[in-house]
Amino acid sequence: MITEPTRNLALELVRVTEAAALSAGRYMGRGNKNAADHAAVEAMRLILNTISMNAVIVIGEGEKDQAPMLFNGEHVGNGKGAEMDIAVDPIDGTRPLANGTWSALSIVALAPRGTMFDPGPFVYMDKIAVGPQAKGKVDILAPVKHNLTAIAKAGGKSVEDVTVAILDRPRHEQLVAEVRRAGARIRLIPDGDVAGALMTSWPDSGIDALLGVGGTPEGVLSACALRAMGGEIQGKLYARNDDELRRGREMGYDFKKVLTMNDLVSTEDVFFAATGVTDGEFLDGVKYFGSGARTDSLVVRGQTGTVRQIIATHRWDKLNKFSAIKY
Question: According to the model, what pLDDT value does residue 53 have?
Answer without folding.
Answer: 92
